[in-house]
């Protein structure tokens, strides 16, 4: 049994303790949502986000959950809804990056990336469906490598992010009768921990000669979560400073 979105807005961000996920949590808090988010191995960073939110009178909840674990995903969803109510926005940001050319990638690395970046994304969305209000927003975080890889050693990562771009189209059709939109954000190089050792090189590759910020990606997430985007679904939006032009 579903209900329409009401004045109380709840968001759940899978993978929200650092980088783009943390920026998304902070932006959604500023937009007036009660926000729950998952983390795997950064409890101090997660608690710092909660503490900062509570000092501002905002509602945040950190939940330890590995997106490769279906039971942990379900636990995160039920914990969120028990605390804050039904979900109006879901952001699936959890993902991992392991590089290696095809002759060096071990089976366990392949399986791990598929489990988190594809299976985990699908299961995260699936777990939230019974708890989404009609008219909710589902947002995945992909990558511009789905369009242009640009370097050797990223075949598995590209495979997973291309799968996400295709996945949102099918899920968007599944959820369209409830007016739930499903869209995919595809960032290029962003100034996060993942890229901290390569910022100068990545900036030089960009037509704008800089990398993006997590806050800029969060701004696009905020738009997709808003009423202004209600006619957009099944789309992949690239935010990469022209890197795929």
UniProtKB/TrEMBL annotation:
Pfam families: adh_short_C2 (PF13561). InterPro entries: KR_dom, NAD(P)-bd_dom_sf, SDR_fam. Belongs to the short-chain dehydrogenases/reductases (SDR) family. Residues 9-171 form the Ketoreductase domain. GO terms for molecular function: oxidoreductase activity, acting on the CH-OH group of donors, NAD or NADP as acceptor. It comes from Comamonas serinivorans. This is Oxidoreductase.
């Amino acid at each position: 049994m579903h209900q329409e979105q009401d004045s109380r807005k709840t968001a759940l961000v899978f993978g929200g303790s650092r980088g783009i996920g943390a920026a998304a949590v902070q932006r959604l808090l500023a937009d007036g949502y009660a926000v729950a988010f998952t983390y795997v191995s950064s409890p101090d960073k997660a608690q710092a986000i909660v503490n900062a939110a509570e000092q501002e009178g905002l509602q945040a909840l950190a939940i330890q959950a590995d997106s490769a674990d279906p039971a942990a995903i379900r636990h995160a969803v039920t914990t969120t809804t028990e605390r804050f109510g039904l979900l109006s926005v879901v952001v699936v940001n959890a993902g991992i990056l392991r590089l290696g050319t095809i002759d060096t990638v071990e089976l366990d690395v392949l399986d791990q990336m598929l489990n988190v970046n594809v299976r985990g994304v699908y299961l995260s969305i699936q777990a939230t469906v019974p708890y989404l209000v009609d008219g909710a927003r589902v947002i995945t975080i992909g990558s511009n490598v789905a369009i242009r890889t640009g370097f050797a050693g990223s075949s598995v990562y590209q495979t997973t992010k291309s799968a996400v771009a295709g996945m949102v189209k099918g899920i968007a059709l599944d959820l369209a009768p409830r007016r739930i939109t499903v869209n995919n954000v595809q960032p290029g190089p962003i100034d996060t921990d993942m890229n901290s050792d390569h910022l100068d090189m990545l900036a030089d590759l960009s037509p704008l000669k800089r990398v993006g910020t997590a806050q800029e990606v969060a701004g696009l997430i905020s738009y997709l979560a808003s009423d202004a985007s209600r006619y957009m679904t099944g789309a992949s939006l690239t935010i990469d400073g022209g890197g795929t032009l």
